[in-house]
Design goal:
Elements: E1 24-28, H1 33-44, E2 48-53, H2 68-79, E3 85-89, H3 95-109, E4 114-117, H4 132-160, E5 163-168, H5 181-201, E6 206-213, H6 224-230, H7 239-247, H8 259-270, E7 281-284
Parallel strand pairs: 1-2, 1-4, 2-3, 4-5, 5-6, 6-7
Helix pairs in contact: 1-2, 1-8, 3-4, 4-5
Bound molecules: nicotinamide-adenine-dinucleotide (NAD).
Nicotinamide-adenine-dinucleotide binds near residues 33, 34, 168 and 213.
Length: about 290
Protein backbone atom coordinates (compact mmCIF):
# COMPACT_ATOMS: atom_id res chain seq x y z
CA UNK A 1 0.00 0.00 0.00
CA UNK A 2 1.31 3.42 -0.87
CA UNK A 3 1.70 6.01 1.83
CA UNK A 4 -1.53 7.90 2.33
CA UNK A 5 -1.94 11.56 3.10
CA UNK A 6 -2.56 13.43 -0.11
CA UNK A 7 -5.14 13.36 -2.81
CA UNK A 8 -2.67 11.79 -5.24
CA UNK A 9 -0.31 9.57 -3.33
CA UNK A 10 1.58 7.59 -5.92
CA UNK A 11 -0.59 4.48 -6.11
CA UNK A 12 -0.67 3.22 -9.66
CA UNK A 13 2.65 4.71 -10.71
CA UNK A 14 4.25 1.44 -11.78
CA UNK A 15 3.92 0.66 -15.48
CA UNK A 16 2.10 -2.60 -14.74
CA UNK A 17 -0.12 -1.30 -11.95
CA UNK A 18 -3.87 -1.09 -12.33
CA UNK A 19 -5.74 2.17 -11.84
CA UNK A 20 -6.58 1.28 -8.23
CA UNK A 21 -3.62 -0.99 -7.47
CA UNK A 22 -3.23 -1.66 -3.75
CA UNK A 23 -6.50 0.05 -2.86
CA UNK A 24 -9.36 -1.44 -0.87
CA UNK A 25 -12.89 -0.83 -2.10
CA UNK A 26 -16.24 -1.29 -0.37
CA UNK A 27 -19.21 -1.98 -2.65
CA UNK A 28 -22.79 -2.20 -1.33
CA UNK A 29 -25.47 -4.11 -3.22
CA UNK A 30 -22.69 -6.28 -4.60
CA UNK A 31 -24.58 -9.56 -5.05
CA UNK A 32 -25.47 -8.86 -8.67
CA UNK A 33 -26.12 -6.20 -11.29
CA UNK A 34 -24.07 -3.02 -11.23
CA UNK A 35 -22.58 -3.76 -7.79
CA UNK A 36 -21.11 -7.00 -9.10
CA UNK A 37 -19.80 -5.28 -12.24
CA UNK A 38 -18.18 -2.51 -10.15
CA UNK A 39 -16.58 -5.05 -7.81
CA UNK A 40 -15.08 -7.05 -10.67
CA UNK A 41 -13.90 -3.90 -12.48
CA UNK A 42 -12.20 -2.60 -9.32
CA UNK A 43 -10.58 -6.01 -8.73
CA UNK A 44 -9.28 -6.15 -12.31
CA UNK A 45 -7.60 -2.79 -11.68
CA UNK A 46 -5.89 -4.04 -8.54
CA UNK A 47 -8.21 -3.39 -5.60
CA UNK A 48 -9.17 -5.78 -2.81
CA UNK A 49 -12.89 -5.87 -2.14
CA UNK A 50 -15.23 -5.60 0.82
CA UNK A 51 -18.70 -6.56 -0.37
CA UNK A 52 -22.14 -6.53 1.20
CA UNK A 53 -25.73 -7.11 0.18
CA UNK A 54 -29.08 -7.50 1.95
CA UNK A 55 -29.51 -10.93 0.30
CA UNK A 56 -33.22 -11.01 1.13
CA UNK A 57 -36.40 -9.46 -0.21
CA UNK A 58 -38.31 -6.32 0.84
CA UNK A 59 -42.13 -6.51 0.81
CA UNK A 60 -42.73 -3.30 -1.15
CA UNK A 61 -40.24 -4.18 -3.89
CA UNK A 62 -42.03 -5.94 -6.78
CA UNK A 63 -39.12 -8.21 -7.81
CA UNK A 64 -36.68 -10.47 -5.91
CA UNK A 65 -33.50 -8.90 -4.57
CA UNK A 66 -30.04 -10.49 -4.57
CA UNK A 67 -29.34 -13.74 -2.72
CA UNK A 68 -26.47 -15.18 -0.70
CA UNK A 69 -25.68 -17.41 -3.70
CA UNK A 70 -25.45 -14.30 -5.90
CA UNK A 71 -23.11 -12.68 -3.40
CA UNK A 72 -20.94 -15.81 -3.30
CA UNK A 73 -20.75 -15.70 -7.09
CA UNK A 74 -19.51 -12.11 -6.99
CA UNK A 75 -16.87 -13.13 -4.44
CA UNK A 76 -15.76 -15.95 -6.77
CA UNK A 77 -15.54 -13.54 -9.73
CA UNK A 78 -13.43 -11.10 -7.71
CA UNK A 79 -11.15 -13.85 -6.41
CA UNK A 80 -10.71 -15.16 -9.96
CA UNK A 81 -8.90 -11.90 -10.75
CA UNK A 82 -6.36 -12.75 -8.02
CA UNK A 83 -7.56 -10.06 -5.61
CA UNK A 84 -8.70 -10.63 -2.04
CA UNK A 85 -12.34 -10.33 -1.06
CA UNK A 86 -14.56 -10.53 2.01
CA UNK A 87 -18.34 -10.39 1.93
CA UNK A 88 -21.11 -9.89 4.44
CA UNK A 89 -24.87 -9.99 4.43
CA UNK A 90 -25.75 -6.48 5.59
CA UNK A 91 -28.66 -4.12 5.08
CA UNK A 92 -27.68 -0.53 4.29
CA UNK A 93 -30.62 0.60 6.47
CA UNK A 94 -28.88 -0.88 9.53
CA UNK A 95 -26.34 1.46 11.15
CA UNK A 96 -24.69 -1.28 13.23
CA UNK A 97 -24.44 -3.59 10.24
CA UNK A 98 -22.79 -0.92 8.08
CA UNK A 99 -20.38 0.03 10.84
CA UNK A 100 -19.52 -3.68 11.17
CA UNK A 101 -18.90 -3.99 7.42
CA UNK A 102 -16.44 -1.10 7.53
CA UNK A 103 -14.72 -2.40 10.68
CA UNK A 104 -14.40 -5.88 9.15
CA UNK A 105 -12.93 -4.44 5.96
CA UNK A 106 -10.35 -2.42 7.87
CA UNK A 107 -9.46 -5.45 10.03
CA UNK A 108 -9.08 -7.65 6.95
CA UNK A 109 -7.20 -5.29 4.64
CA UNK A 110 -5.98 -2.39 6.79
CA UNK A 111 -8.05 0.37 5.19
CA UNK A 112 -10.97 1.30 3.00
CA UNK A 113 -9.89 3.71 0.26
CA UNK A 114 -12.91 3.59 -2.05
CA UNK A 115 -16.60 3.40 -1.14
CA UNK A 116 -19.18 2.64 -3.82
CA UNK A 117 -22.63 3.25 -2.28
CA UNK A 118 -24.57 1.36 -4.92
CA UNK A 119 -27.31 -0.62 -3.14
CA UNK A 120 -30.81 0.38 -4.15
CA UNK A 121 -34.35 -0.68 -4.89
CA UNK A 122 -37.05 0.56 -7.23
CA UNK A 123 -40.83 0.32 -7.07
CA UNK A 124 -43.57 2.24 -8.81
CA UNK A 125 -47.04 3.58 -8.35
CA UNK A 126 -49.15 6.60 -9.16
CA UNK A 127 -48.23 9.32 -6.67
CA UNK A 128 -51.56 9.16 -4.81
CA UNK A 129 -51.27 5.39 -4.36
CA UNK A 130 -47.83 5.41 -2.74
CA UNK A 131 -48.39 4.06 0.77
CA UNK A 132 -46.44 5.13 3.83
CA UNK A 133 -44.68 1.76 3.77
CA UNK A 134 -43.66 2.14 0.11
CA UNK A 135 -42.37 5.68 0.72
CA UNK A 136 -40.55 4.73 3.92
CA UNK A 137 -38.86 1.66 2.39
CA UNK A 138 -37.69 3.61 -0.66
CA UNK A 139 -36.25 6.52 1.30
CA UNK A 140 -34.75 4.16 3.90
CA UNK A 141 -32.85 2.07 1.35
CA UNK A 142 -32.00 4.45 -1.48
CA UNK A 143 -31.37 7.68 0.45
CA UNK A 144 -30.81 6.83 4.13
CA UNK A 145 -28.90 3.67 3.17
CA UNK A 146 -26.53 5.77 1.07
CA UNK A 147 -26.11 8.17 4.01
CA UNK A 148 -25.41 5.31 6.44
CA UNK A 149 -22.89 3.71 4.09
CA UNK A 150 -21.01 6.99 3.68
CA UNK A 151 -21.22 7.87 7.37
CA UNK A 152 -19.73 4.49 8.31
CA UNK A 153 -16.62 5.09 6.20
CA UNK A 154 -16.07 8.86 6.42
CA UNK A 155 -14.30 9.08 9.84
CA UNK A 156 -11.75 6.49 8.67
CA UNK A 157 -11.16 8.35 5.40
CA UNK A 158 -10.77 11.69 7.19
CA UNK A 159 -8.23 10.12 9.55
CA UNK A 160 -6.19 8.80 6.62
CA UNK A 161 -6.73 11.96 4.57
CA UNK A 162 -7.65 9.81 1.59
CA UNK A 163 -10.89 8.54 0.16
CA UNK A 164 -12.96 8.17 -2.97
CA UNK A 165 -16.71 7.99 -2.35
CA UNK A 166 -18.98 7.26 -5.29
CA UNK A 167 -22.75 7.14 -4.80
CA UNK A 168 -25.16 5.69 -7.32
CA UNK A 169 -27.97 8.09 -8.09
CA UNK A 170 -29.81 7.75 -11.43
CA UNK A 171 -31.01 9.82 -14.36
CA UNK A 172 -34.18 9.71 -12.25
CA UNK A 173 -32.21 12.01 -9.96
CA UNK A 174 -31.85 14.59 -12.76
CA UNK A 175 -35.48 14.90 -13.88
CA UNK A 176 -39.01 13.87 -13.01
CA UNK A 177 -40.26 10.41 -13.86
CA UNK A 178 -43.95 9.51 -13.73
CA UNK A 179 -44.93 6.69 -11.33
CA UNK A 180 -41.55 6.79 -9.60
CA UNK A 181 -41.91 9.82 -7.32
CA UNK A 182 -40.47 8.13 -4.21
CA UNK A 183 -37.54 6.75 -6.23
CA UNK A 184 -36.98 10.11 -7.94
CA UNK A 185 -37.07 11.93 -4.58
CA UNK A 186 -34.50 9.52 -3.12
CA UNK A 187 -32.19 9.80 -6.13
CA UNK A 188 -32.32 13.62 -6.18
CA UNK A 189 -31.62 13.43 -2.45
CA UNK A 190 -28.43 11.45 -3.06
CA UNK A 191 -27.13 14.30 -5.24
CA UNK A 192 -27.75 16.84 -2.47
CA UNK A 193 -26.00 14.55 -0.02
CA UNK A 194 -23.01 14.07 -2.34
CA UNK A 195 -22.56 17.77 -3.05
CA UNK A 196 -22.77 18.70 0.63
CA UNK A 197 -20.42 15.97 1.84
CA UNK A 198 -18.02 16.89 -0.97
CA UNK A 199 -17.87 20.45 0.38
CA UNK A 200 -17.26 19.25 3.94
CA UNK A 201 -14.45 16.88 2.87
CA UNK A 202 -12.89 18.82 -0.01
CA UNK A 203 -9.86 19.95 1.99
CA UNK A 204 -9.39 16.61 3.71
CA UNK A 205 -8.26 14.39 0.84
CA UNK A 206 -11.65 12.75 0.29
CA UNK A 207 -13.65 13.18 -2.91
CA UNK A 208 -17.38 12.51 -3.15
CA UNK A 209 -19.12 12.14 -6.50
CA UNK A 210 -22.27 10.62 -7.96
CA UNK A 211 -22.96 8.52 -11.02
CA UNK A 212 -26.34 8.80 -12.72
CA UNK A 213 -27.02 5.87 -15.03
CA UNK A 214 -29.87 5.73 -17.51
CA UNK A 215 -31.57 2.33 -17.77
CA UNK A 216 -29.17 -0.53 -17.01
CA UNK A 217 -29.55 -4.17 -17.98
CA UNK A 218 -29.87 -5.67 -14.48
CA UNK A 219 -32.57 -7.63 -12.60
CA UNK A 220 -33.93 -4.31 -11.28
CA UNK A 221 -35.04 -3.54 -14.81
CA UNK A 222 -35.49 -6.99 -16.27
CA UNK A 223 -38.50 -8.31 -14.41
CA UNK A 224 -42.24 -8.66 -15.14
CA UNK A 225 -43.26 -5.78 -12.87
CA UNK A 226 -41.02 -3.29 -14.68
CA UNK A 227 -42.04 -4.66 -18.09
CA UNK A 228 -45.68 -3.94 -17.18
CA UNK A 229 -44.82 -0.39 -16.07
CA UNK A 230 -43.31 0.40 -19.47
CA UNK A 231 -45.90 -1.57 -21.49
CA UNK A 232 -49.20 -0.95 -19.67
CA UNK A 233 -51.02 -1.70 -22.93
CA UNK A 234 -49.71 -5.29 -23.16
CA UNK A 235 -50.61 -8.43 -21.22
CA UNK A 236 -47.50 -10.15 -19.83
CA UNK A 237 -44.95 -8.02 -21.76
CA UNK A 238 -41.45 -9.43 -22.27
CA UNK A 239 -37.88 -8.12 -22.52
CA UNK A 240 -38.31 -7.87 -26.30
CA UNK A 241 -41.52 -5.83 -25.89
CA UNK A 242 -39.86 -3.15 -23.79
CA UNK A 243 -36.82 -2.64 -26.04
CA UNK A 244 -38.44 0.02 -28.28
CA UNK A 245 -39.92 1.81 -25.26
CA UNK A 246 -36.50 2.15 -23.68
CA UNK A 247 -34.87 3.06 -27.00
CA UNK A 248 -37.31 5.98 -27.26
CA UNK A 249 -36.06 7.39 -23.94
CA UNK A 250 -32.53 8.17 -25.15
CA UNK A 251 -30.69 9.44 -28.20
CA UNK A 252 -28.26 6.60 -28.80
CA UNK A 253 -30.76 3.99 -29.95
CA UNK A 254 -29.59 1.59 -27.29
CA UNK A 255 -32.32 0.21 -25.01
CA UNK A 256 -30.13 0.09 -21.92
CA UNK A 257 -26.57 0.26 -20.67
CA UNK A 258 -24.55 -2.82 -19.83
CA UNK A 259 -23.59 -2.68 -16.13
CA UNK A 260 -19.94 -2.54 -17.23
CA UNK A 261 -20.58 0.78 -19.00
CA UNK A 262 -21.48 2.28 -15.61
CA UNK A 263 -18.46 0.57 -14.02
CA UNK A 264 -16.18 2.56 -16.34
CA UNK A 265 -17.51 5.82 -14.87
CA UNK A 266 -17.16 4.43 -11.35
CA UNK A 267 -13.57 3.35 -12.11
CA UNK A 268 -12.75 6.83 -13.41
CA UNK A 269 -14.05 8.45 -10.23
CA UNK A 270 -12.30 5.85 -8.04
CA UNK A 271 -8.89 6.33 -9.64
CA UNK A 272 -6.36 9.15 -9.60
CA UNK A 273 -7.69 10.21 -13.01
CA UNK A 274 -10.46 12.02 -11.11
CA UNK A 275 -8.27 13.47 -8.33
CA UNK A 276 -9.48 17.00 -9.13
CA UNK A 277 -13.17 16.16 -9.16
CA UNK A 278 -15.49 16.34 -6.19
CA UNK A 279 -19.17 17.15 -5.71
CA UNK A 280 -19.77 16.21 -9.31
CA UNK A 281 -22.53 14.32 -11.01
CA UNK A 282 -21.43 12.05 -13.83
CA UNK A 283 -24.32 11.16 -16.09
CA UNK A 284 -24.05 7.89 -18.00
CA UNK A 285 -27.20 8.79 -19.83
CA UNK A 286 -27.12 7.45 -23.40
CA UNK A 287 -27.75 11.08 -24.32
CA UNK A 288 -31.13 11.14 -22.59
CA UNK A 289 -30.27 14.50 -20.99
CA UNK A 290 -28.35 15.95 -23.94
CA UNK A 291 -31.10 18.44 -24.66
CA UNK A 292 -31.24 19.74 -21.09
CA UNK A 293 -29.30 22.10 -18.80
N1 LIG B 1 -31.06 -0.81 -13.38
C1 LIG B 1 -31.31 0.46 -13.71
O1 LIG B 1 -31.94 0.73 -14.74
C2 LIG B 1 -30.76 1.58 -12.87
C3 LIG B 1 -30.69 2.86 -13.44
C4 LIG B 1 -30.16 3.91 -12.69
C5 LIG B 1 -29.74 3.70 -11.39
N2 LIG B 1 -29.83 2.43 -10.86
C6 LIG B 1 -29.33 2.25 -9.49
O2 LIG B 1 -28.20 1.41 -9.55
C7 LIG B 1 -28.01 0.76 -8.30
C8 LIG B 1 -27.78 -0.72 -8.54
O3 LIG B 1 -28.95 -1.30 -9.08
P1 LIG B 1 -28.93 -2.52 -10.12
O4 LIG B 1 -29.42 -1.98 -11.40
O5 LIG B 1 -27.63 -3.21 -10.06
O6 LIG B 1 -30.11 -3.41 -9.48
P2 LIG B 1 -30.11 -4.87 -8.85
O7 LIG B 1 -31.47 -5.02 -8.25
O8 LIG B 1 -29.67 -5.86 -9.85
O9 LIG B 1 -28.99 -4.80 -7.72
C9 LIG B 1 -29.18 -4.09 -6.52
C10 LIG B 1 -28.54 -4.89 -5.39
O10 LIG B 1 -28.73 -4.12 -4.19
C11 LIG B 1 -29.12 -5.01 -3.17
N3 LIG B 1 -29.87 -4.29 -2.13
C12 LIG B 1 -31.13 -3.80 -2.20
N4 LIG B 1 -31.50 -3.27 -1.04
C13 LIG B 1 -30.43 -3.40 -0.20
C14 LIG B 1 -30.21 -3.04 1.14
N5 LIG B 1 -31.19 -2.47 1.89
N6 LIG B 1 -29.01 -3.31 1.69
C15 LIG B 1 -28.04 -3.91 0.97
N7 LIG B 1 -28.20 -4.31 -0.31
C16 LIG B 1 -29.40 -4.04 -0.89
C17 LIG B 1 -29.97 -6.05 -3.87
O11 LIG B 1 -30.11 -7.26 -3.11
C18 LIG B 1 -29.21 -6.24 -5.17
O12 LIG B 1 -28.27 -7.28 -5.09
C19 LIG B 1 -29.26 1.09 -7.48
O13 LIG B 1 -28.97 2.13 -6.58
C20 LIG B 1 -30.26 1.55 -8.54
O14 LIG B 1 -31.23 2.40 -8.01
C21 LIG B 1 -30.32 1.39 -11.56
Amino acid sequence: MSEVGSNIDGAGTSARAGAVEGRVALVTGAARGQGRAHAVALAREGADLVLCDIASDIDTVPYPLGTEADLAETVALVEATGQRCISMVADVRDTEAMDAVVTSGIEAFGAIDICVANAGIVAFSHFQDITDEMWDDMIAVDLTGTFKTMRAVVPHMIERRYGRIIATSSMAGRMGNPNLSHYVAAKWGIIGLVKTLAMELASRGVTVNAVCPAAVDTPMLQNPAMYSLFCPDLDAPTREDVVPRYQAMNRMGQAWLAPEEVSRAVMFLAADAASGMTGQVVEVSLGSAAGQH
